[in-house]
Specification:
Layout (H helix, E strand, L loop, with lengths): L1 H17 L3 H11 L4 H6 L2 H14 L1 H6 L3 H19 L6
Length: 93
């Protein structure tokens, strides 16, 4: 039982070190949204580069992203958590 608890604590610690914060993502969107900075932060490299070279789709993608950044942060965090838990042999309920 102690080994499982130790693995869970290690996995949670690893997850806490890589999870993204919606407030930070929105802050980056506010300052660097036109260049796709928030997308770089979330690991969406392809979209980030597209936003960088088109100035956020001439601002349209940047404006639309205000509605999608929070959901994207939750999706990225959920995916990262699942991968970390699986790597440590823990099935998340």
């Amino acid at each position: 039982m102690d080994e499982l608890r130790y693995r869970v604590l290690r996995a949670e610690s690893e997850y806490n070190s890589v999870k993204k914060d919606a407030r930070v993502a929105y802050g980056i969107w506010l300052v660097l949204g036109i260049f796709g900075g928030h997308r770089f932060y979330l690991g969406d490299t392809g979209r980030s580069i597209a936003m960088l070279f088109t100035l956020g789709g001439l601002g349209l993608w940047t404006l639309a992203d205000v509605f999608f950044v929070g959901r994207r942060v939750r999706t990225v965090n959920s995916s990262r958590r699942a991968a970390i838990m699986a790597r440590h042999g823990i099935v998340d309920a």
